[in-house]
Amino acid sequence: MTQRAGHALVAALLAVLVALLLSARTAAAAERTLVQLAEEVSIGLLEEVNGLFARDWQERTGERVRFRLAVLPAQRQARALAAGLTPDFASARALTDAASPAEAAVYATTIVFLARTARGREARDWGDLLAPQVRVLAADPRRSDVGRWSYLAAWSWALEAAGGDREAALARVRALYRKAELLRSVTPATARDFLRRGRQDVLLWYESEAHELAGRDSRAAVRTPPVSLRVETAPLVPAGDGDGDALRHAYLELLDGPLGREAAARHHFRGAAAAETAELPALRLATVEEHLGGWQRVEEEHFAPGGLLERVLAR
């Protein structure tokens, strides 16, 4: 398939998605629909919160609420927005360049080490992953959201460890990714397959999913490095019509209230306050906005052709 044909196929698929999701706007007056675009890592939390909100809203107003939830990587969400889709909720990265202001929910996760061997359990910091005997598995930053977040988390550590020296940070990240085995594709079963059949010691993965797996699989252990990156995949709400805003904001109020906090804790997400994440190890969370200059700068410096990621992965 040519590059032009590939772009045409993506455009056609996005057009179908736009049509399907926007058809939700024709719901009867006694039923409202909220359209959500979300990354894979937040699906479990959102499905639980959606059910809680639908019941709460109907009890309070008599009005039924349905959710149209589409699981899309952030880059594809951004393309859908550019194609004209106007969802009620989307992920932080998808809304980076949006003209409308957005109100963020307060929950996030981070990148940790999911260990499956005794050697992997000994890795407590990013620098420990550079030891020759530690076998590391990571998602390819060019192919998945968890790959990008993992790469940026490693970069945040390296930049701090190097005292802000970018070339020294680059050398650390290159050393890590030169020894790591990269996953070309990521599925919902990736982390489970790593635990069952993996050959490596450590997988760079989302904290929320890593703790859920560790609670069910005795082979799994979670190692939290002292510094990582705040992964903001919880929903944001773009500005919209006034009537729709009331429903969206009511949803965010529930998400930020006691019911939402309890659900977030069950799914091992971090809240804005330390008390909300007491069951999770403390660490310093860097953010894209405050520590890496924002998503536009990150895209230009790291992921654009000729950017730092190409230098990291160059053989």
From TrEMBL:
It is found in: Periplasm. GO terms for molecular function: molecular carrier activity. Residues 1-29 form the signal peptide. Keywords: Periplasm, Signal, Transport. Transmembrane segments: none annotated. Its main location: periplasm. GO terms for biological process: sulfate transmembrane transport. PANTHER family: SULFATE-BINDING PROTEIN. Belongs to the prokaryotic sulfate-binding protein family. This is Substrate-binding domain-containing protein.
